[in-house]
Amino acid sequence: MSASLSVLLVTFLGLIIAGLPIAWGMIAAVIAWMAFTGQWAFLPIVPERLYQGMDSFVLMAIPLFILAGELVNEGKITDRLIHFANVLFGWMRGGLAQVNIGASILFAGITGVALGDIASLGRVFIPAMVKQGYSSAYAAAVTASSSIIGPMVPPSLVAVIYGSMTGVSIGALMAATLIPGLLIGLAQMILVAIQARLNNFQRIEMDRKPAAVASATGHAIVPLMIPVIILAGMLGGIMTPTEAGGVAAVYALVVSLVLYRSVTFSSLAAVFNRSALFSGQLLIIVGCGAAFSWVMGMENVPRMVGEMISTWDLGLIGTMLVFNLILLVLGMFIDPTTVIILFGPLLSAAAVHAGIDPLHFGVVAILNLNIGLLTPPLGVCLFAAERIANCGFAALLRATAPFLLVNLIALTIIVAFPGLSLWLPRILGF
Asked: Topology in the membrane (predicted)?
């Protein structure tokens, strides 16, 4: 590693550890690299690279998906999904914990963001589970663990970013993440069922006669059409991801404003404000990451990594194992968006060079980075859930450990059987 590359990476990591926002840490590292190398002639190019990183039609899907999710939250449509999840999953032992996971699966098809899941569902389920006798740490653990399903079940903002950074078809990637996402949910539900037997967790008693089930389904079908519209449009080749996001946002607006009348014109300003703020935070990271990646390209980092992996000669399985370890460690310290922007193109190219299918690798990468949301020191989903439950971080870590284990087991299955990721995209013609 050259001295100039060391300055770039050490400056970036040092500033992040010191608490500087990731976007500014990347730009500061680029400037430190210029100061060390004396390449000040590149300084006027940095804003251009930053802008070009964000100037992508595909990335316009991000604010539109976020807006659709904010409209759903503001419109209290979540309540209808929770009631539907009660009907579907509440009959099992540990009913409320099962409903928590089931609601995350349903809600994932609308927001595609882990923290959005916690912010919306955590405030409902954590107090409800505590009231029913679950410990606050266990309630927070279920909520935090199930939230990582969100970025796996389409539509997924992480998949949009990954596809735009690596050139992998976003529609194919969303199709590829569907079955693995459902597998993660199933694994967590099996764990809750085992824990429910050991701890005598109760079922949810409610009317489940055909008329009640039909009513709950009818109330849930309208919000559940949002992911259907997105997936049908993208997978059917009718809409691009950006167009699908626009249609979903308009649909959510009409449903909340006209059909349910749960959103007023006066509240729309706050909805648009939150959507713009969150979108800006994501896109500025994308732009700064493009400038940072440009400098890493100047340092020939992609070629260095490719040559290094080639010299290891680990074979397909060994290479995949190394990639998993790298991604898990990166996910423990850096948020998924930043990892994908900085290392996605580099690792994806190296994986393809090693004979790994780019779609399968994309699914594995996204899942690895999502698991990082449950592991210290970053663990943003843990911190978000603990803030709601106020259960103590140590207790939350203990309660989360079994869920982390089953997530890793599910990851191993997904890695070992590429067909779980590739079957649906192949059926759909990708």
From this structure: Multi-pass membrane protein
Torsion of CA 358, 64, 225, 156, to 10 degrees: 30
Number of folded domains in the chain?
2
The residue to which tokens 């590829």 are assigned? 176
Say whether both 129 and 154 belong to one domain: yes
- Global pTM reads 0.79
96-145 tens-digit pLDDT: 788 788 877 777 656 556 666 676 677 777 887 887 788 999 999 999 89
pLDDT tens-digit profile of 351-360? 887 788 999 9
Sole residue written with tokens 């309630």: 139
Q: Are 273 and 402 part of one and the same domain?
A: yes
Residue 48 lies in a domain: no
Contact between 120 and 107 under an 8 Å Cβ cutoff? The reply is: yes
Same domain, 93 and 122: yes
Structure tokens at 131: 């009231």
Sign for the CA dihedral angle at 223, 225, 228, 230 comes to: negative
70, 166, 149: which is closest to 114 by C-alpha?
A: 149
Task: Enter the tokens of residue 100.
Answer: 């928590």
Do 314 and 368 have their domain in common?
yes
